[in-house]
Design goal:
The chain is an alpha+beta fold. The chain is built from 14 helices and 18 strands.
Length: 444
């Protein structure tokens, strides 16, 4: 527990040092691609540091000066399963981005999906020592939160205060300097499988890079794909990746829930590969050019040449109707969306004042997906592209780059986390068995 707290603090300090030097890279380690963006900071970030708890990503402070992607290797379901292959892929992406930026990068902030995320809502309460709330009081109230027994093999990825209350006034973003007697807080904590974090950290180290931060893809995708109103009023971001689908719920500009479904676009490709008996690369091409989930009468007549180079003339000259292709794709896409629906129900999403759902990630580009998703998930579904950031190449502005762009915003303006405060070690949260579940029903 304490080591984790210290390693997160060490990463945060490393990030600050990199920012002062003016350049840092972000790395999205996905199942289908690895994306690296190199950011240059112009030093205007320091003025933004005092925006208080959870200041949201602004546009100031940085521009993208290098970008590269490479096909991912050794990553399944968003988790590393072949270290050497992933290491080579990360090196390829980082070197290409450095070459474009014409600068060497030592520090990276990485994000990954999968790893069995679990959300907890915690709360803590303390009496204020003076008359006004100090930084120390915030550290004390965060350390007063009861941390559940989440298991020795898991690590905390995010621990963010999402709400403060002072006496009877709730919904405070930053209570520092305000008068009152009793301070309480709600904290969202996200834990993931510890091995996944250690593997990623080890992999980055083997590439001669320093890890200056780590984030959940589901979280950073929401940061970049949800517009400010959606983050404020409540919305879910569904990040359809290759090997995993991230689910995050935002409210009052904070993530209050995250989860992941161990299925994504690669599973759809796999179904096409098996259904049509073609290699994965051919299946991916057919999916990208002709795929869809809603068949019309026209699709029976539209024939797709499968192609191939097996040498068997009849096998290589086969055609399939687009309706058949949709018939292969739709059941898997429905299955992924049903799983997402179950996660949203478990989180109590229907209790939020707004029911907006935003689909992003590379898998969200399947034609007709938004219509199918609104049938399965609820009414208000839109497709989300990541926010515009300075210097981002046109090729990296699509929904497949939502987490990479979100990671840039996270790097430039991280929300306050537990380890940003000087928590006295002896006050370090005792692990209690009190599980806080569906806490935002009571708090919003």
């Amino acid at each position: 527990m304490i080591e984790l707290y210290q390693s997160q603090r060490a990463m945060r300090n490393m990030r600050k040092a990199a920012m002062q030097r003016g350049v840092i890279a972000v790395l999205d380690v996905g199942s289908s691609k690895i994306a690296c963006l190199v950011l240059r900071f112009d030093g205007s970030e320091k003025s933004g540091e005092s925006d208080g708890i959870g200041s949201l990503a602004g546009q100031s402070g940085f521009r993208v000066i290098g970008a590269a992607t490479t096909r991912s290797r050794g990553v399944r379901f968003g988790e590393i399963n072949a270290m050497g292959e992933t290491e080579r892929a990360i090196r390829t992406a980082v070197q290409a981005a450095q070459k474009m930026a014409q600068i060497r990068v030592d520090h990276v902030i990485a994000c990954f999906s999968g790893a069995g995320p679990r959300s907890y809502g915690l709360d803590g309460k303390v009496d204020i020592e003076g008359t006004t709330v100090s930084e120390q009081d915030i550290a004390r109230v965060l350390s007063a939160c009861d941390v559940p027994e989440f298991g020795d093999d898991r690590e905390i990825l995010h621990a963010q205060p999402v709400n403060f209350a002072l006496d009877h006034r709730s919904g405070l973003g930053d209570p520092r300097g305000q008068l009152g007697q009793t301070l309480s807080t709600d904290m969202h904590m996200l834990t993931v499988d510890g091995m996944a974090i250690q593997n990623l950290a080890h992999c980055v180290k083997r590439c001669d890079l320093e890890l200056a931060g780590i984030a959940s893809s589901a979280y950073v995708s929401g940061v970049s794909a949800l517009v400010e109103d959606e983050q404020e009023l409540g919305a879910a971001c569904i990040d359809l990746g290759g090997g995993a689908t991230g689910v995050s719920i935002f409210m009052k500009k904070h993530m209050i829930y995250a989860d992941a479904v161990r299925m994504g676009g690669d599973h759809v490709t796999g179904d096409i590969s098996m259904g049509l008996q073609v290699p994965m690369a051919t299946a991916e091409r057919i999916k990208t050019f002709y795929g869809g989930v809603v068949a019309t009468g026209m699709d029976d007549r539209e024939m797709i040449e499968i192609g191939g180079d097996t040498g068997d003339w009849h096998h290589d000259r086969r055609t399939v109707s687009r309706a058949e292709l949709i018939g292969i794709m739709r059941p898997r896409v429905e299955e992924i969306l049903e799983e997402v629906r179950a996660r949203l129900d478990a989180a109590g999403f229907e209790h939020l004042p707004s029911q907006q759902i935003v689909l992003t990630g590379g898998g969200s580009q399947i034609p007709g997906l938004d219509g199918l998703a609104s049938k399965i998930l609820g009414q208000q579904v839109r497709l989300g592209r990541p926010m515009r950031v300075h210097g981002l190449p046109q090729a990296a502005t699509g929904p497949g780059f939502a987490s990479a762009v979100g990671l840039c915003l996270f790097a430039a303006h991280p929300q306050d986390e537990w380890w940003d405060f000087e928590i006295p070690v002896e006050r370090y949260p005792a692990r209690s068995l009190k599980r806080a579940v569906k806490w935002f029903r009571d708090n919003w």
